[in-house]
């Protein structure tokens, strides 16, 4: 299974993982740089993605419900329509991220950096 670059389609990370969730968790565990990764529509429900490097990644409509994104670098990431319900984003860097239409219900954003983030008009609230 592969994770491709969002613009060039080059392989960013590859393994024998059985699912996208397992693939991404393995990449994060190995400290792979997933900058510019195309993870559109990925189901990452409950995944441990703490300290993931997802700079400028395409995360449109991805499901991060109850995921651990503590300290993750999501600088410039496109999270349009993403489901972050109950996600732990403590200390995450969301500088310049696009969160238009994202669901942040019950998400923990303590100490998260939302500088220049686009929250859009339809973004649902967070705690």
The strand order across the widest sheet is: 1-2
Number of strands: 2
CATH superfamily: E3 ubiquitin-protein ligase SopA
Distance between the termini: 35 Å
Provide the β-strand percentage band: 5-15%
Order of helices and strands: EEH
Low-confidence sequence ranges: none
- Number of structurally distinct domains: 1
Largest sheet: 2 strands, antiparallel
What are the defining features of this structure?
little secondary structure; 127 residues; Pectate Lyase C-like; two-stranded antiparallel sheet; 1 helix
What does this 3D model show about the protein?
The protein has one helix spanning 20-29, and strands at 2-4, 11-14. The chain is largely without helices or strands and 127 residues long. The chain has one domain (1-127): E3 ubiquitin-protein ligase SopA (Pectate Lyase C-like, 3 Solenoid), CATH 2.160.20.80. The chain has a two-stranded antiparallel sheet with strand order 1-2. Strand 1 and strand 2 (11-14) form a beta hairpin. The radius of gyration is 13 Å and the shape is globular.
Give a brief outline of the structure.
This protein is mostly loops. It is 8% helix and 6% strand. It has one domain: Pectate Lyase C-like.
Topology diagram in text:
Blueprint: E1 2-4, E2 11-14, H1 20-29
Antiparallel strand pairs: 1-2
């Amino acid at each position: 299974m592969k994770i491709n670059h969002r613009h060039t389609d080059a392989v960013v990370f590859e393994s024998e993982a059985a699912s996208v969730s397992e693939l991404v968790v393995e990449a994060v565990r190995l400290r792979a740089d997933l900058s510019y990764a195309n993870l559109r529509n990925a189901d990452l429900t409950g995944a441990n993605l703490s300290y993931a490097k997802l700079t400028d990644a395409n995360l449109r409509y991805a499901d991060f419900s109850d995921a651990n994104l503590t300290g993750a670098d999501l600088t410039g990431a496109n999270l349009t329509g993403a489901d972050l319900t109950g996600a732990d984003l403590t200390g995450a860097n969301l500088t310049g991220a696009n969160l238009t239409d994202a669901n942040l219900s019950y998400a923990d954003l303590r100490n998260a950096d939302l500088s220049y983030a686009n929250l859009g008009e339809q973004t649902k609230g967070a705690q």
